[in-house]
Amino acid sequence: MSTERAVNPVAAGSLLADRAYEELKGAVLANRLRPGDALSVPALATQLGISRSPVREAVQRLIHDGLATHIAHRGAVVATVDVEDVRQLYVVREVMEGLAARLATERLDATRVSELRDLLERHERVVAAGDDEQAHTEMDMAYHRLIREVAGNPHLTAALDTVQGKAHLALHALWRSPQAPRLAVEEHRRIFEAMTAGDPDAAELAARDHIRRLRIRLSQAVAPGPDRTEGGPAPVHPVGP
């Protein structure tokens, strides 16, 4: 599939490979680049406004993270969703997110409580407004990222970043249900309440319950193949400054 206008230009002076990677990863997770879409280095380099070398590095990182794959005689493409693989990822993610919530509760301070509350309340407003899947996805991921950042274990963070990214490939099917974002943010609220109560056991249980419920809802919602609209992938935008 063409990737025309699927990504945004990268700002000069930035770490180009990192910025290209973040832009491409964001496009994949927001479903602007969809499973099976080609990741043409020349085309993406043109869209991003940079040379091919950092784009090639960014695509290799996507492959390493499981968000893309290399197909002989075709090149790199966005990874397709293997339903059973995603289910197994969620089993692993359940344990790790529970641990992250436990560790974060033990390290929580007033500043972090404020950050978590602000993010949660903004997420609740987005969900209440409805019809913004990309904003919901970004805030969902940001909430879990903030918890693992507070947890302060870089090895756990690295493992969860990889698992969460690959697991999110399938979530487009889940977010089509109008109830799914509401349920997710309600579960986020329960995690927050357990953490701010200073109860590591309850925080771990709430986080594990959230991921387990996500896995069950995903199993019910996911289709054998990705949903596509006519005319190919939606545009990706150039990276701004």
Description:
The protein is mainly alpha-helical and 241 residues long. The protein folds into two domains: 6-80 and 226-238, Arc Repressor Mutant, subunit A, CATH 1.10.10; 83-221, Up-down Bundle (Four Helix Bundle (Hemerythrin (Met), subunit A)). The protein has helices at residues 16-29, 41-48, 52-64, 83-107, 110-129, 133-151, 154-167, 171-175, 179-196, 200-221, and strands spanning 6-8, 68-71, 75-78, 236-238. Strand 2 (68-71) and strand 3 form a beta hairpin. Helix 6 (133-151) packs antiparallel against helix 7 (154-167). The longest helix is centred in the middle third of the chain and has 25 residues, at 83-107. It is globular. Residues 223-241 have low confidence and may be disordered.
Notable traits:
single chain; 241 residues; mainly alpha; Four Helix Bundle (Hemerythrin (Met), subunit A); 2 domains; two-stranded parallel sheet; 10 helices; 4 strands
Topology:
Blueprint (H helix, E strand, L loop, with lengths): L5 E3 L7 H14 L11 H8 L3 H13 L3 E4 L3 E4 L4 H25 L2 H20 L3 H19 L2 H14 L3 H5 L3 H18 L3 H22 L14 E3 L3
Indicate the structural class. mainly alpha
Q: CATH superfamily of the largest domain, please?
A: GntR ligand-binding domain-like
Strand share of the residues?
Answer: 5-15%
What name does the CATH topology of the largest domain carry? Answer: Four Helix Bundle (Hemerythrin (Met), subunit A)
Sheet with the most strands, sense and barrel status: 2 strands, parallel
Helix content: 55-70%
